Description:
Structural class of chain B: mainly beta
Helix content of chain A: 10-25%
Strand order of the largest sheet of chain B: 3-2-1-29
Order of helices and strands of chain A: EHEHEEHE
Number of domains of chain A: 1
Shape of chain B: globular
Number of helices of chain B: 0
Oligomer: heterodimer
CATH class of chain A: Alpha Beta
Mean pLDDT of chain B: 93
CATH architecture of chain A: Roll
Strand content of chain B: 35-45%
Low-confidence stretches of chain A: none
CATH topology of chain A: Ubiquitin-like (UB roll)
Largest sheet of chain B: 4 strands, antiparallel
Strand order of the largest sheet of chain A: 2-1-5-3-4
Number of helices of chain A: 3
Amino acid sequence: MIRLILPPHLxxxxxxxxxxxxxxxxxxxxxxxxxxxxxxxxxxxxxxRDHVTLQRRxxxxxxxxxxxxxxxxxxxPLPEAVTSGKEPFVVLGAIAGG
Amino acid sequence: xxxxxxxxxTRKGAFILTSDGKREKWDVSGxxxxxxxxxxxxxxxxxxxxxxxxxxxxxxxQVIQRSDDGGKTWHQPGTPPGEPTTxxxxxxKGESNKFVYDTSPQTGKPLTTHQWYDGTQHAWExxxxxxxxxxxxxxxxxxxxxxxxxxxxxxxxxxNWHELSGLRGHxxxxxxxxxxxxxxxxxxxxxxxxxxxxxxAISAAGAFRTDDGGKTWKPINRGLRxxxxxxxxxxxxxxxxxxxxxxxxxxxxxxQKHWDVMRSDNAGDSWTEVSGNLPTDFGFVIDxxxxxxxxxxxxxxxxxxxxxxxxxxxxxxxxxxxxxxWEALTKGLPQKDCYVNVLRDAMAVDSLDxxxxxxxxxxGQVYVSPDAGDxxxxxxxxxxxxxxxxxxxxx
Lengths: 98, 395
């Protein structure tokens, strides 16, 4: 079970409170977590990754276990603490602007 | 008694303002979609309870919202509240924010690049929806003008969007160049008498028309003069800010260009300047009285370098002669120390017997004139910067 924390605006869009819990069949990676998230909450498609290229939106970042995983390859395994559900995978809106 | 419902898009959410036909006392609801940029909201003429909204964010991209009950509840088309979020076979719904340019070999092959600020070619990249224009006849058909400039259409209530790629592909697309605000398709006018005829405008490419429902297009910019274009007969490259039409006279168009107020009496085939005695002819909005097709409104802005009203005075200018002769409308509007702008989609007219005029400012005020501009009062004063104003006249 993967625990996932979304930024407030995306929680509003998905109509969820607090953490999202996802069950994955295969290995936990950025790609598989986001695939599972979008399958369960299709209104989030296009909001974290571009619809077509599946590239991360520039002002969003991924964190877990107090590490910035944003630039890790999308198919790299996530830390064991995330896979086991001990630590959440965090999608964060970058501080940008003034 | 008839009612007015004003749909306001702002930098930080949407607001709905309602009043009876007197338009003196207003209820304000919102913010809807708080914290997001609402570039545009508009109701269907065929079903006033059907509203569409463009919700967008630099962080999270584009979302299309729809209401089927006049704005009380909203949902993203494709994922109605209470329904499963996946379709038959587990296929995900929620495609309403998917705007994909046509790249098919048949129709999309040449539509690869446009001109960038430095003159080089640049790939088309979808950024946001600037304007939503519902069909006058079918609540499920709606057009979207987007940045980078293209026209999309949905015929299923906003669930799926398909590009009318004949516009980008008609030939001049590689020469289009973004204006300071991006390369946006911001104006869409559907001819109420001829379903095949659509007018659109793009900054900074110009105005275009189709007569066959969007298959083929042609530039309609003859007569426009832009100082920054060396060729006085340039077919495209003009920074058209907005165009407007009275429904009873679909062949007559009015335009606020970057500089210059223009009119066309032949469906855009040629334009003549009607700036006349305006104190400055730079501006963004232009609109036409609902019942008097020669009565038009603009809000002059000081200059392209100073995007606020001239002389610190918020003045709407009205011409009852279709241009050239203008009068300043000031009653109820601030006449000192005012430095707001009125953006291109932030003016609207209702169709009550006594035509009401509405506009919103970058300072967060929304003003109404229930007497065609003679006097004004603020409906609200302290909203976030207003991006768009539309009004529905309800029975």
